[in-house]
Structure formats: C-alpha cells, structure tokens
Amino acid sequence: MRDMRLSNHARNVAAIAVRIADQLSVSPKDRETIEAAALLHDIGKIGVPDSILAKQTKDLTPEERRQLEQHPVRGQAAVEPIESLREAGVLIRHHHEWYNGDGYPDRLRFDDIPLGSRIIAIADAIDRHANPGRRGGPYDVLRAYRIVYADRRTHYDERLMPALERVVKEIH
C-alpha cells in the first residue's frame, strides 16, 4: 500500500517460491500455503516507519534494527485472525530465520525452520539481490543466485540449492 516496489517484490517472491516448491514436489496444500505466505511475507512492515524502511540494513541504529526485526512477528499477528491463513502466518514469522540459527525472530536453525519459510527466505533473497534498485541495470537472477549460493549452510538450507538452480535456469 505504501511502496509499489514492495508489492512487486511480494509477487516476485511468491512466483519464485512456488517454482521452488514445485521443484521439490510439495503437496498442493503446502504449495498454496507457501504462495500465500510469500505474497504476505512482508505485511508486518506496515507497522515499520518509512524512515527505517528507506535505510540500508547496515545503516540502522540498534533500535531501528529491533523494530525492523519485529516485522515477521507482526506479519504473523496480522494474519492470525484469518483461520485459513494461520499456517501461512507461521511461515511468515520464520522467513528471516537463518539456517545456522543466527536469524530472527526466534533464532531457529536447521529443520526447526519450516520448509516453507526456508523456501520463502531463498525466494526473498533472490528477488532482493536480482533487483537492481538504486544500482540501476537489468534484473540479474544469476548474480542473485551466486550471492545466495555463497550463503548456503549459514543463511539458507543447502539441500534446496539444486531446486533453486533449476528455477534460476528457467527464469534466466
């Protein structure tokens, strides 16, 4: 509602996440939940001031970082009253967990992070790194893949990399 880039990002993340889920042959029900969560993964940012969202993560003060890191919790809370979105809410809550446990909000690690959240995390990173934003230039999914691949084992589940590679080849 406040930023068209976030709206486009949500659609891109959902499209990439669904393609990864398809590569992994997840059930139709889980695929639908992943798609809904991916579309809504940043809904909790509605409670974050624009001044914080406009900054690069590295430039945030500790308090601003704390506020930003609450957006997955707020996102889950936003969809919780809608029974059909409760499972998606869990995926939204955990889409910033890192595979090694250094993510947020709950510092989950490995298979404690729901598969859908691990998929959305990868799709989110691919779109974020592929999008030229302030740099200008074309959407570069290969560049994004190299960045995400380098962070496998720490940020992302390396077991998902073969599926991601096939999706990146399809997109490219």
Descriptive overview:
The mean pLDDT is 94. The protein has 172 residues and is an all-alpha fold. The protein has nine helices and no strands. It starts with a helix and ends with a helix.
Short overview:
With 172 residues, the protein is an all-alpha fold.
Count of alpha/pi helices: 9
**What does the radius of gyration come to?**
15 Å
**Whole-number mean pLDDT:** 94
Which shape, going by the Cα principal axes?
A: globular
Structural class by secondary-structure content: mainly alpha
Order of helices and strands: HHHHHHHHH
The largest sheet is: none
Q: Percent of residues in helical segments?
A: 55-70%
What secondary-structure arrangement, pairings included, does this model have?
Blueprint: H1 4-23, H2 28-40, H3 50-53, H4 62-69, H5 71-79, H6 86-93, H7 115-130, H8 141-150, H9 161-171
Note the main attributes of this structure.
172 residues, mainly alpha, 9 helices, 58% helix, globular
